[in-house]
Fold:
Amino acid sequence: MEELVDNNKKYLKAIISCQTALFVGVLLRLLLFVLDGSLWRDEAMLLMGLRSISIPEIFQELPYGQRCPFALALLWKSMMGLGMAGTHWIRLPSLAAGIAHLFIFARLARKIFSQSKSQPNVVLWLAAVSPQLILFSTQTKPYVFDVLCATLLVFLSLPFFLREEQQGQRYVPLIVASWFSLIISYPAVFVVGGICAGLFVKNGLRKFGPLLTLCLGTVIIVLLPLTLAGESSSYMKIFWEKVYEGFPRLDVIWWGRALAHSLFFGLSSPSYLGIVKLSLFFGWLFAPLCAIGIFHLWSTKQHGLLCLLLSPLVFCLTASMLHRYPFHSRLILFTMPHVLILLSYGIIHMSSYSRLRLTVQWGLWAVVVLCCIISIIEYSYPCKGIRHGLSYIASREKPGDKIIVDLYASQVVRYYQVLADKDQRVRFPDADITYEWQDQTESKGRPTPDEIVNWQPAQSRIWILAEAEFYHRNLTPLTRTSVQIMNGLFLRSRKVVYSLEVPRVLVICFSNE
Structure:
């Protein structure tokens, strides 16, 4: 009787812990959504590219080197057409996807732990306070939709791989969800491929009909839009085969490092707290448990489920290596639910060892606490961006002022310049703006740094507006051109009239007066 009471207390504590994790995860996402009121450079380039093209052109590569699944491109382009182009409006779909992923993963974790003595609260906490998942839940980029699709597909396919699979399970919801995911997520192809491989390993050809339907539908959905756009071969070449100079050689060693990186990328800090050091720390903690999870699935003869979890990552990294695509970090974020599931089975396996169970439990909770601290520090304070810098200049500018926009900030400023014509709430300066360029040998009619420095006293005040590069929320690295301009202005004895330095923006006003 006492044992039953103790079990009920533990179960109640686990339920409270899971509900608290969901609350904290949603709260952190909402805080970042509300407090971060300015777009990033990548977001602005994507939206400016969508604004400048017609609907049939969304099947092709977007301007500024951006890529986006055509369903998401159509959604964001439609929102801009309906006047919902503001920062919070345009980020709302990503926020909804991030919160939906959290609740779907909670159900997925409960299903995995339902037949064990352990509880899913630790794994759910890791998903809730992951700094990367929180960040991309408020970004106008497709990465959080990749995670959502992967989580949903694994959740729908899991009953076909568990031992307690009920008879008469229907494949229709899984097939429909797989086809729908393919139009809103590029990595969904790898997840669907993993499902097909897992079903084949588990059932062989006994259930050939659903497997064939899923495979054929996937091929049709992937190839049909490319064929309609008339850009099938060139599109895939642009997406995968572009050679990036200056990156390490993509070989087996790179493949192994990328595989190890995938185990803890979602739990690493995206800014000044040190992404490399924290990634290595998390890797040493989680890699052994994930390996134990793989051993557990293999020893219990759940080969199909193991194939389901490992195949997408193997497919993705192999394709990246073969097609010279080195940006695996954010691309493999979609495997976050797969890694957490492997971690879950590692926890389940270790729970049978009474001596090690407490050590593993305290180690995992230490990571949860560390992730909470990182996420709270990162996302619970107002993080002002280019929009704040533009408002600062607009409230202090004078006739004849000039504004020099740093390379990293140029696309964001252009986006808000377009938005200011339609939204009176966006304060935009009236001064002339000069945008910085990368190639100093070809100015293309724009003034050189020396010409900017030597502007006549009639144009007495010069504003410098710069933004931190992505992933550096508390640093403001300036481009070489900005440094040349600022050094030249200081050498000309220009006086600093105004200055504003916040985590993401640097504003300096020089004057002859």
